[in-house]
Design brief:
Strand content: 15-25%
Number of strands: 12
Shape: globular
Largest sheet: 5 strands, mixed
Helix content: 25-40%
Mean pLDDT: 87
Low-confidence stretches: 1-26, 324-339
Order of helices and strands: HHEEHHEEEHEEHEHHEEEEH
Structural class: alpha+beta
Radius of gyration: 22 Å
Number of helices: 9
Distance between the termini: 52 Å
Strand order of the largest sheet: 2-1-5-3-4
Amino acid sequence: MKPLHYKSLLHITRNVETCTKRFYQRQRLTNAAVQKKRSELFSKEVKRQAALITDVEKIEVKYHGQPEDCTLIMNKSMSTPFNCAQHIGQAILDRSVLAEVNGKVWDMHRPLEEDCTLSFLHFRQPDPYYVNRAFWRAASVMLGAVLETVFKDDIYVELCSFPSPNVRTGSFVYDVDLKRPNWEPRKEELRTLSGAMTKLSLSALPFKRLEVDAKLAFEMFSDNQYKRAQVPHIAAQGEKGNSVVLYRVGDFVDMSRGPLISNTSHMGKVSIASVHPIKVDSGELLRFQGVALPKGFMMNHFSFGILQKRAEQLNTGRVPSIPIIGDIGAKPQQLSAAK
């Protein structure tokens, strides 16, 4: 057997040292540090995109609704439906959850891109279908934000994903890898999560939308094995084929096709009702489930308790597939509750 050449031995040693260094760096990851990194990259990209707008162009926005129809002159790719609502009146601004721009559902904080017609959607309209879906989707994003902040630093929370919003399931959901097998939260811990959701809603933080290149999204979520693997798939399904839509609420950044509600204050009474283990190809995730009412919708304790009981049952929404990078054709797995 030939002795190892010095350069070969040095190469092996360096590889081991690199792997060891990466392992300990991985061990020292904290949710706060990762959240800060994503938020900073988000802010940097916002500034970069804003710098691309060198000339301020005016667009004509024809508003239809209360208190009266009017025409607004706004700035292309800068002004948002939220800005338009500020010109119309405080009551419209407070109740508007989504906008409808040229017949298309639109985020309140998404810049307007051309001359358009504009109206606003709210919870008490005759058909609140799109508003309800945006509310349920935003509730999942808020739950993800809470889960990244409530646990101690020694617990690295890797958020996976949440199924498409479906109010009929009785709960909004987020599937998470806590790396704590057989963890069953106590009632006090569920109440802590519910309290954190309430605190977030009272903060009235806006949901800021940003469309970014898939490479930047990959960099943002490089510390999350699930999100990192999802980026190419999400980008391939987008309108441009190479971009990902992100939302930031506070310092929390997540991927979602949207649209989401205007801000967290649209959430009223909320409860995180249960946590269920679910099986996926890579092992086990925890499915956090909650129920919430829009702000201003009153319900007595008994009636809300019925909703909570329903939300305690395992939500049979789609279980996340854990794709391999490049496997665009990955199929969703069927729901399988861990026993």
